[in-house]
Write a structure and sequence with these properties.
about 450 residues, alpha/beta, TIM Barrel, Rossmann fold, 3 domains, ten-stranded mixed β-sheet, six-stranded mixed β-sheet, 17 helices, about 35% helix, globular, rSAM_sf, 4Fe4S-binding SPASM domain-containing protein
Length: about 450
């Protein structure tokens, strides 16, 4: 049976204290700002994630961003081994401390400007660090920092200076853009040299103009190159166990991929070059993502990229494709989403009495008490249409809500809404119906989920 160890071993911590069993799952299993690590790890949400591994569905995993699912490289275990390894443990043994956004770069795929923490943010980061240090000391491994740069963050550096791993084969994995990965910063964590250290550097380009653009306008390529040679020396002298260089391939750098890989392997002598696709998260708008996603067959650079992938250097066994060779779903420019919404509302509003029509459809289905999913113009129009009808709108629900009220009603996030008090949820942004349905079911909603275009 296919087996993934992460939900049974790993805790992935975000800057707001939210925790996932893995960074590639969709759902939060708790928050360590208001609960202990043990409480979060043994929560019902955590057990639900584990059940999706036990039943083989992996239904709460993101197949596109998980390299093991994308490449179908999860190990196959016998039934006996699988049963043994899927027993829940009291505490995690692996930690991914991605709990600080502080970074010295502002890559467009991640953020629009250099992150500046406020007092509350710093207070929470210190609380998280204090909770993590004792359990990390007893753990098997630590990875940091997927949401910022470990050497740029004084708080992650402080955490690294404080930990004293007890296990002889403790594994430390550091991810950095490399600009501050120099002798001065390495000296601060020299007490960790006795452990197995893996370092991954994420430059995204060695061409100056592309590098400057992809780092958010920061022109420190020369410093990076110097530090890559320094890391090479750490690898040669045995101070680190493994040296990886990673690139997120996209519209601005895909043409240099063969030369990038060649330089990584020959000049810097890294153990592995990891090639990732651009993912739709953080600061990217739908329009920006569409232009960067060259794995979309509708992208104007798609065919050229497919030819580049045939270059012999990319077949080297030291090159690892993290989904950057899997063709994505064919998608038109996001303009077409707006057209779909426009057509749906045009159909609804073309009715001589759209308010009565919508009310009648919901009443015929037996729904009088509903919530609306989404905080957007579509949701506002639906709410206004239902005003003065027999349909009672209780609240708005939105996974990524940044406001607490909308149209005079409360806005709740998925982990806050009461799944038992409403009969149906009317989905305003129905082009994301599949993901919304998955999330609502995970949080216990058993009622009807209605896309408004039905």
């Amino acid at each position: 049976m296919k087996y993934c160890s992460r939900p049974f071993k790993q805790l992935y911590v975000f800057p707001n204290g939210d925790v996932r069993a893995c960074g590639w799952t969709y759902v939060c299993i708790g928050n360590i700002l208001n609960k202990s690590i043990e409480e979060v790890w043994n929560s019902s949400e955590a057990e639900t994630i584990r059940d999706t591994i036990r039943d083989g569905s992996y239904s709460l995993c993101n197949n596109e961003v998980c390299p093991y699912l994308a490449n179908n490289t999860l190990p196959d275990l016998s039934q006996e081994e699988f049963t043994e390894k899927t027993i829940s443990q009291r505490l995690p043994s692996e930690f991914n401390a991605a709990y600080d956004y502080i970074c010295n770069h502002s890559c467009p795929s991640c953020r629009h400007e250099v992150f500046k923490p406020n007092d509350d943010y710093i207070k929470n980061i210190k609380i998280i660090s204090d909770k993590l240090v004792p359990v990390i000391n007893q753990a098997d491994s630590l990875s940091t920092n997927g949401n910022g740069d470990c050497f740029a963050s004084p708080y992650v550096m402080d955490m690294l200076q404080r930990i004293r791993p007890q296990r002889n084969e403790f594994l430390l994995q550091l991810e950095t853009n490399g600009v501050l990965c120099d002798e001065i910063h390495w000296e601060k964590i020299s007490h960790l040299y006795k452990n197995d250290i893996v370092i991954t550097v994420t430059p995204n380009s060695f061409e100056r103009l592309a590098y400057k653009y992809l780092s958010g306008g920061h022109d420190n390529l020369d410093t990076l190159i110097k530090n890559l040679h320094f890391i090479k020396s750490l690898r040669q002298t045995g101070k680190i166990k493994r040296f990886e260089i990673s690139i997120v391939v996209q519209d601005r750098n895909y043409r240099e991929l063969p030369s990038f890989v060649h330089r990584c392997l020959e000049e810097f002598e890294c153990d592995c070059v990891v090639i990732k696709p651009i993912f739709y998260w953080f600061a990217l708008t739908k329009e920006e993502y569409w232009f960067k996603d060259i794995l979309n067959p509708k992208h104007p650079y798609f065919n050229e990229y497919m030819e580049i992938l045939k270059d012999p250097i990319l077949m080297d066994e030291r090159v690892y494709f993290w989904g950057a060779h899997h063709i994505h779903e064919e998608k038109e420019h996001p303009y077409y989403d707006y057209k779909i919404y426009f057509d749906a509302f045009s159909k609804l509003l073309s009715n001589p009495e759209p308010q009565k029509s919508l009310e009648k459809k919901l009443i015929e289905k037996g729904y009088k008490r509903i919530s609306i999913y989404g905080v957007n113009d579509n949701a506002k129009l639906l709410f206004n249409l239902l005003k003065g009808t027999q349909i009672s709108v209780v609240e708005f629900i939105d996974k990524y809500a940044t406001v607490r009220d909308f149209c005079g009603l409360p806005v709740v996030k998925l982990d806050d809404f009461n799944a038992d008090k409403i009969e149906a949820i009317l989905v305003s942004n129905f082009v994301f119906l599949k993901n919304i349905t998955r999330d609502l079911r995970f949080f216990g909603f058993k009622g009807k989920i209605i896309p408004f275009n039905e």
